[in-house]
Amino acid sequence: MSKSSISAVIFDLDGTVIDSKQVIAEAYHAAHAELMGAEAVAPPFSEYCKHLGRSFPQIMKRMGLPLAMHGVFMRESNARMHRIEVFDGIRPLLDSLRAQGIPMAVATGKDHTRTEAILDSLGLIDYFACIVGSDDVENPKPAPDMALMIVQRLGLEPASTLFLGDAVADLLCGQGAGMQTALALWDNPGEEVRGHACDYQLTDPRHVLALLEEPRHADVTPA
Question: Minimal CA–CA distance to 53: which of 204, 197, 163?
């Protein structure tokens, strides 16, 4: 079935726009040590990564860890915010989309306030017409609520909106809202993510621009 042309793009944040995995890992281990004791062995961060895209409380629940880790995690993440970087190719992509008048939004498992603070610190906040954090909806990703909120606020057509993310939760959110979905491969998501159904798999952020010209099949990586 042919795809509609893409007229808007929703971005996940961590692992898609920003390179923050090391900061997340350090904050996770620091929170576990403070709440569970320095001698306690934390579940491996690779287990945490299986749930990326979800909110931190959702991840803690799925891992059987105390929700009280959330406050410490946020404190430790904020202390390391200056170390977060933007992935290569993201700024040129955002510039090109803005020049073409393509509406852009962010839907992230992070809370709204922290998301705005990170985007502002990186000089990215003005690119996005709408920012939705996990605390802005009753049911965060993988439910479609975040994507649907963006659709409503910006007056988008779901079928011609691309949801770009690096986690299964991102793909499910976009699919549940009736959007096209693209898996971002530049932060090396696991095999369980790569094997999930989506419309496109992209190895470079700038490949999104090719989709504006000609929608392609999911197993074709634009070159």
Answer: 163
Which tens digit of pLDDT belongs to each residue from 109-152? 999 999 999 999 999 999 999 999 999 999 999 999 999 999 99
Q: How far is 191 from 180, CA to CA, in rounded Å? A: 21
Q: What CA–CA distance (Å, rounded) separates 117 from 217?
A: 36
Q: How far apart are CA 114 and CA 125, in angstroms?
A: 12
What's at 91, amino acid-wise?
R
Domain 8-19+85-213 has CATH 3.40.630.30: no
In the numeric block, the tokens 């979905």 are attached to 181
Q: Say whether 55 sits in a helix, a strand or coil.
A: coil
DSSP secondary structure letter of residue 138: S
Ranges of each domain in the chain: 8-19+85-213, 21-83
Rg over CA atoms, the chain: 17
User: Do 189 and 166 contact (CB within 8 A), yes or no?
Assistant: yes
DSSP three-state, residue 107: strand
> Residue 93: how many CB atoms within 10 A of its CB?
22
Q: What are phi and psi of 25, to 5 degrees?
A: -60, -45
Indicate the residue type of 193: V
148's CB contacts (< 8 A; 6+ apart) are: 177
Tens-place pLDDT, residues 23-61: 999 999 999 999 999 999 999 999 998 898 899 999 999
